[in-house]
Amino acid sequence: MPGLRVCVSLAPTNTAHALELMNRAASQGADMVELRLDLMAHYDLEALLCNRPLPVLVTCRSRSQGGGCGAEPSAIAATLQQALAFGADLVDAEEQVLPHLPQEALPRVVVSYHDNSACPADLAAIYKRLTDTGAGVVKLAVRALSIHDNLALFSLLQSARKPTIALAMGEAGILSRILAGRFGAFLSFCALDSTSAVAPGQVPLADMLNLYRAKQISPRTDLYGVIANPVAHSLSPIVHNAAFRACGIDAVYLPLLVEEPLRFLQAFTPLGFRGYSVTIPHKQAVLPALGWVEPLARRVGAVNTIVVEGGQMRGYNTDVEGALRCIEAAFPPGLQWQGARVLLVGAGGLARGLAYGLAERGARLTICNRTPERARALAEELGASWCPLSHLSRLSADVLLQTTSVGMYPREDECVIPRELLRPGLVVYDAVYNPPETKLLRLAREAGCITVSGVGHFIAQAAAQFSLWTGLPAPVSIMEEAMLSRLEAQAHPEQEG
Questions:
Q1: What does the longest C-alpha to C-alpha distance in the chain come to?
Q2: Is-cis flag, bond preceding 473, omega within 30?
Q3: CB under 8 Å to 146, separation ≥6 — which residues?
Q4: pLDDT value at position 2?
Q5: Angstrom distance (rounded) from CA 32 to CA 52
Q6: pLDDT for 370-412, tens place per residue?
Q7: pTM above the 0.90 mark?
Q8: Backbone angle region of 425, left / alpha / beta, with phi > 0 → left and psi within -120 to 50 → alpha
Q9: What is the DSSP letter of 2?
Q10: For helices 454-470 and 319-328, angle between their N-to-C axes, nearest 10 degrees
Q11: Known catalytic membership, residue 319
């Protein structure tokens, strides 16, 4: 099977800008670029193609297919013929444009179909219609409304009779772009950087090549991923892919936007998944799918790690020890969990795990949550105290644990904890790791509190996951370096490229 081609989609403003971007793409390892003429205000096609530093696919997408060109099909065909005459390696022609091109051009034509609203039920029939046109390459681009829409594209690629591009647009379709080579796709489109995507869901070139190593993914590559909703913010792919690369493991870790975890596990695990991380809001929902659950995770009722082996899925919880050890390391002399007054904010999967761990350590625990009923239910399980979140400012504590997603990127200006609660010497932990210093931690530091970021906890639980999956010690320093580097890049996006 030939290796996957990685093609960068470009929508430059003019000819000079196009040549600059093409050279950037070439220097960063792209195999090809797509020039979106329909998104360019003006251009010199001869200059673009005669000075190209790498192979070029020329596209002039019509408005009816989600592009910016309002010209008639015959006029679009004339532009594409001109591009071929100037040496374009391939041109993209929609079905209505194809009849206006000469037969001898067909081997260099990508005949394309786009649905920007959904993944059509008759995808196989559409594909057959396109293959029968005689074009050299067939392209289908649809909108993924669910991660399950990727399965239809994977099936189509595996049965393809000629070079085929099949991808799903949107966040739920990112999988189709990264795993394209695993299923034999002719190429996969990506963006030059995080600010220049031409279609929704395009992955930056550097991430395609270096983070996901998309060109090296084959049917032998083991698959892992984080089951979450939302998932775009997750740094799990950053740390785990860095660990796989450092240890020379043929594996890739993917962001998995999942709404129905049980249905997902049943449908996707047979594709070659060997393990999953599980996070908000699915840590409890996955339990019915597991053949075995470790005692701690069973007591907690929350799983953050799944190991797939021998046809069985086993569940673990690496959150509890990872978090409590990181927090305890910041304690001032004389403070210990036994007898400590601990305020736990939240009642989700992580909060449940910490609550059980704290109860076992003898802490005097009070649980607060925006939904009082959930706080009360968890407290009653453990014989702990509880209160509504609105009463939080009336309490005092030795340790404050914030386990909700409040304050997470991109809503960094939010904080659920009242300032009146923050006092010198209070140990304040925020499970949010993106950004490393949340608004809560900043306010706590300014108030003289001892602060503990979610970064240390995140790395600790991820390292334990890695070892469960691989049987190897995790390269912790490499994982932490990768995470902090990505957080720094997110904080200063102007430095990219």
A1: 84
A2: no
A3: 172, 259
A4: 56
A5: 10
A6: 999 999 999 999 999 999 999 998 999 999 999 999 999 888 9
A7: yes
A8: left
A9: P
A10: 140
A11: yes
For the chain, give the percent of residues with pLDDT over 90. 92
Which residue is catalytic, options 114, 240, 439, 457? 114
Structure token digits, residue 239: 């740390």
Given 319, 398, 430, 439, the catalytic residue: 319
Q: 74 near 52, Cβ under 8 Å? A: no
Q: What average pLDDT does this structure show over 71-77?
A: 97
Is 215 part of the annotated catalytic residue set?
no
Q: Work out the end-to-end distance of the chain between its first and last CA atoms, rounded to an integer number of angstroms.
A: 32
Per the DSSP assignment, residues forming a β-bridge with 275 are 224, 307
The encoded tokens of residue 409 equal 């990127």
Assign residue 234 a region: left if phi > 0, alpha if psi is -120 to 50, beta otherwise?
A: beta
Q: Residue 34's Cα: distance from chain center in Å?
A: 24
Domains of the chain, each with CATH number or no CATH? 5-219 (3.20.20.70), 236-316+459-484 (3.40.50.10860), 321-452 (3.40.50.720)
Choice among 240, 282, 283, 439 that is catalytic = 283
Give dist(CA 359, CA 193) in Å, integer.
47
Sign for the pseudo-dihedral over CA of 220, 221, 227, 229: negative
Strands 273-278 and 305-309: antiparallel
Catalytic residue among 31, 38, 92, 139: 139
Q: Is 89 a catalytic residue?
A: no
